[in-house]
Amino acid sequence: MAVHPPNKEMLCDECEMNMMTMTINCHNPLCPNNECNKHKPSKEPPPELTNWDIRFLTMAKHIGLWSKDPSSKCGAIISRNKVMISSGFNGFPANTDDYPEIYEDRERKYLRVIHAEINAILYAKCDLTGCTLYCTLPPCCQCTAAIIQSGISKVIYNSPDQSFIDRWKDHIHESKRMFSEAGVVIVEY
User: Fold this and answer.
1) Calpha distance 116→137 (Å, rounded)
2) Is-contact 19 94, C-beta < 8 A?
3) Is 16 a catalytic residue?
4) What is the pLDDT tens value at each position of the chain, 189 positions in all?
5) Dihedral pair phi/psi, residue 130, rounded to 5°
6) CB-based burial, 49-63: b 16+ in 10 Å, e otherwise
7) 14, 16, 101, 117: which one is catalytic?
């Protein structure tokens, strides 16, 4: 159970407001008030993860190492019934320049980069309805929209560190809202 400062605009149906302490208690992992991801993950996988889930998360991390981006090595795997459908890592479009100096120019890099999740979706070349996407970090809002539109029904990602959460908090919260609204299951490991 997570305890949060009250934010009445972001309450889900399961939030409980304690008027004495002015805190919110919530048991819903998809609630935008639920910031349990700030806690360190246990060394044991949560009960909802299978050995295959762990394998695909490990594979996503390995695929992420292929990225030429020195500041971010993100990878993604899409699977269906224990079979890998596609993979992707963050990088520039095929057949475009990918010199180190472009990656070092942060503004220019952001104009060109395709996130791992989008690359995995684009390279799949098949219907992704009901698939699971594994990624090394929580998806941003644009990747979340593409994941939802592609029909992927479950997203499993590694728990980010606190600096990532601080930088991308708005994206993390909005993505969780969008996934919840669309009925996409998310699991943070």
Assistant:
1) 10
2) no
3) no
4) 333 344 444 445 445 544 444 444 555 555 555 444 333 344 565 567 999 999 999 999 999 999 999 999 999 999 999 999 999 999 999 999 999 999 999 999 999 999 999 999 999 999 999 999 999 999 999 999 999 999 999 999 999 999 999 999 999 999 999 999 999 999 999
5) 85, 0
6) eeeebeebbebbbeb
7) 117
